[in-house]
Design goal:
- It is a single chain.
- The chain has 355 residues and is α/β, with parallel strands linked by helices.
- It folds into three domains: 82 residues, OB fold (Dihydrolipoamide Acetyltransferase, E2P), CATH 2.40.50.140; 158 residues, P-loop containing nucleotide triphosphate hydrolases (Rossmann fold), CATH 3.40.50; 87 residues, Orthogonal Bundle (Ribonucleotide Reductase Protein R1, domain 1).
- Helix content is 34%, strand content 21%.
- It contains eleven helices and 13 strands.
- The strands form three sheets. Strands 10-9-8-11-13-12 form a six-stranded mixed sheet, with helices on both faces. It has a five-stranded mixed β-barrel with strand order 1-2-3-5-4.
- Strand 12 and strand 13 form a beta hairpin.
- Helix 3 packs across helix 7 and helix 10 packs antiparallel against helix 11.
């Protein structure tokens, strides 16, 4: 396997000309570890040293899927990653440590597959969170519903998930029986990353796409039905139909990080209706003339959907403000205005009822 099998093309080659002038060669990270990376270069697989980043920024640390400039090994020195080629796309979540830095889950992805198990109760909020990351990445989201053979009402489940994934293709599969896999293969392109919690069937789905059992799989725990972590690291593997697959460990937590565009896409029907609100800064809480609240009252939009949107907006704003003093001050001023506005609206409604 060489870089051509992992997506290297003429556009990347043109952008790499400056690196070649300094004796560097292109490579793609197929697995990243602390201090070292497994990469594929023009001559094949290479074990390369990864120099610690000069800053604390997570984005400067090599991640699975990255294209890098590699200094080839010599009789004295091992191959070394010198620089990360600017990422076209990246799936980034808020750090599990609670810091304002993001954690890059996958780099240079084209298709982001949100994997949802039909054997478990559907959790719309989790799907919306992952979709926000997927849209923000710059890749194309696709939702794949697995374990259809263990679902009593597949059409109802499909309708429920489609309702929280506007503009996203939602596909139903049973990887163990092979149902729907031909449609899934046709919907995927380029570098494909699988995202979802443990136990939803990511590795089983990946093995079907690979055409062989390359990824470890395991049954859910009988005690609580939750999945076990069978994927211990992120790894890039070429697909027999073209493109490459990036399997990821199960996501225990999905924190959003600066996903403004991702939220707009995930809740596109709310954003579209918001354009008809009386006030341009409408928060869709108690404001008169709010088109979104009118849609909720009529049943056009579920209250849960609006609650989820507002919750993710607050979380996104909070994460952004932690690293920006100006945004933090604006958030505090906005909160005070919101409280005052709600008090006025409540007082006004109360006065109308007593007339």
């Amino acid at each position: 396997m060489t870089v051509a099998d992992f997506g290297w093309d003429t556009n990347l080659e043109k952008s790499f000309a400056g690196h070649r002038a300094h004796g560097l060669v292109p490579a793609r990270v197929v697995r990243a570890e602390r201090g070292h990376c497994d990469v594929v270069a023009e001559t094949g697989p290479v074990r390369a040293a990864a120099s610690p980043p000069s800053t604390a920024a997570e984005s400067l640390t090599p991640c699975t899927g990255d294209w890098v400039a590699l200094r080839p090994s010599t009789r004295i020195d091992a191959a070394t990653i010198v620089e990360i080629v600017p990422r076209r796309t990246a799936v980034v979540r808020a750090s599990a440590a609670g810091t304002s830095r993001g954690q890059v889950l996958a780099a240079n992805v084209d298709t982001v597959v949100v994997v949802v198990s039909l054997a478990d109760p559907i959790k719309p909020g989790r799907i919306e969170r992952i979709l926000a990351l997927a849209w923000e990445s710059g890749g194309t989201p696709v939702v794949v519903l697995t374990k259809a053979d263990r679902c009593a009402d597949v059409p109802q489940a499909l309708d429920e998930v489609s309702g929280v994934a506007p503009g996203v293709q939602v596909l139903v599969t049973s990887a163990t029986r092979g149902d729907g896999m031909d449609i899934v293969v046709g919907a995927l392109a380029g570098t494909v990353v699988l995202l979802g919690p443990s136990g939803v069937g990511k590795s089983t789905l990946g093995n079907c796409l690979l055409g062989e059992n390359r990824l470890a799989t395991g049954a859910a725990r009988s005690s609580d039905g939750k999945g076990r972590h069978t994927t211990a690291w992120r790894e890039l593997l070429p697909l027999p139909t073209g493109g490459v697959l990036l399997d990821t460990p199960g996501l225990r937590g999905v924190g959003v990080l600066r996903v403004d565009e991702g939220l707009d896409q995930t809740f596109s029907e709310i954003v579209e209706l918001a354009g008809d609100c009386r006030f341009t800064d409408c928060a869709h809480t108690v404001e008169p003339g709010c088109a979104v609240l009118t849609a909720v009252d009529s049943g056009e939009i579920p209250q849960r959907r609006l609650d989820s949107y507002r919750r993710l907006l607050r979380e996104n704003a909070y994460v952004a403000s932690r690293s920006d003093a100006r945004l933090r001050a604006e958030r505090e001023r906005h909160n005070k205005k919101e409280i005052a506005r709600m008090r006025r609206a409540i007082k006004q409604r109360s006065g109308n009822r007593h007339r």
